[in-house]
DNA sequence: TTAACCGTACTAACCTATATAGTACGGTTA
DNA sequence: TAACCGTACTATATAGGTTAGTACGGTTAA
């Protein structure tokens, strides 16, 4: 499914949260798609099942997945208009990144260009949806 | 100078790194401006000088400040065109944030609008340089 | 030159967070 | 029933963060 960097100083469960979150927002994992079982993923990554569960618990707490005892864990469909708190946090991060790019000498035009390349329905960049 | 969240799970020295980095990229701390002495800042924040030093060491390692024994620590002027590695990391982060905004239902037009508000030499947003 | 700063380095101790191992329970499904 | 699923719990070992204290060399102004 993905790889981990065990030499990293970042906790394994946090790396898991980030990786899975990316797979969700990049639409690699589709809404309501089932995630690997805790024990299965633990076996594949050769880490402890408790660590997987901690990551899943965190992902559920952040609203990216939902778990059903006896059935499995699944990707939670996003509800547009919800998560205003998360959106505010994202805008803060965005502002910080843009500021640092300006600080590093990137021109405003270049910044706009780079971002438009990430967006759908535009020439110059396509998303694999 | 700023405040810390001692209840946060994030390490104090990492919070320090982030806060000071923000002050630098937002141009609140000007190039070659002297930072508070290790012991002074430790006194103001009522934390251990070792923790401040750890943050300063990390900031120096990341290229945001430079320290001179006997004199002090200072804001390192940015060199445009340098730090291509950091720029690549920023673009990755940017792509992730844009993807999550799309995932949360923000339209591409709105994303562009929000970013343009962060940029100088445009109506609708100003930077305090 | 002395005194007061500056960054830096080091040890020791404490505490929390992380990760592992093992066991167990209830719900689901073929 | 058997084999899965998520979940919970204890215990243990280790790593990282923080504090405390001490110390050293460079800088600067009195």
What does this structure look like?
2 copies of one chain form a homodimer. Chain A has helices at residues 12-25, 38-45, 49-61, 84-103, 108-116; strands at residues 65-68, 72-75. Chain A has 129 residues and is mostly helical. Chain A has 2 domains: 12-75, Orthogonal Bundle (Arc Repressor Mutant, subunit A); 81-129. In chain A, strands 1-2 form a two-stranded antiparallel sheet. In chain A, a hairpin with a 3-residue loop joins β1 and β2 (72-75). In chain A, α1 (12-25) packs across α3 (49-61) and α2 crosses α3 (49-61). Residues 123-128 of chain A have low confidence and may be disordered. The A-B interface holds A 22, 24-27, 78-83, 86-87, 90-91, 93-106, 108, 111-112, 114-116, 118-122 and B 22, 24-27, 78-83, 86-87, 90-91, 93-106, 108, 111-112, 114-116, 118-122, 127. Chain B binds a DNA duplex (30 and 30 nucleotides) through α3.
Supply the number of helical segments of chain A: 5
Biggest interface reads: A-B, 40 and 41 residues
Quantity of strands of chain A, as a count: 2
What is the level-2 CATH architecture name of the largest domain in chain A? Orthogonal Bundle
Q: Give a short account of the largest sheet of chain A.
A: 2 strands, antiparallel
Q: Topology of this structure?
A:
The structure is a homodimer of 129-residue chains.
Chain A: H1 12-25, H2 38-45, H3 49-61, E1 65-68, E2 72-75, H4 84-103, H5 108-116
Antiparallel strand pairs in A: 1-2
Helix pairs in contact in A: 1-3, 2-3
Chain B binds a DNA duplex (30 and 30 nucleotides) through helix 3.
């Amino acid at each position: 499914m993905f790889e981990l960097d065990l030499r990293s100083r970042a906790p394994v469960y946090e790396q898991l949260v980030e990786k899975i979150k990316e797979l969700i927002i990049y639409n690699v994992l589709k809404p309501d798609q089932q995630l690997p079982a805790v024990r299965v993923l633990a076996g594949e990554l050769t880490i402890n099942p408790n660590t997987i569960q901690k990551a899943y618990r965190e992902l559920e707490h952040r609203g990216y997945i939902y778990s059903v005892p006896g059935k499995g864990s699944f990707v939670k469909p996003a509800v547009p208009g919800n998560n205003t708190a998360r959106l505010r946090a994202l805008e803060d991060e965005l502002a910080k990144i843009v500021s640092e790019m300006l600080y590093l000498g990137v021109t405003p035009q270049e910044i706009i260009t780079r971002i438009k390349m990430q967006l759908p329905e535009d020439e110059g960049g396509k998303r694999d949806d």
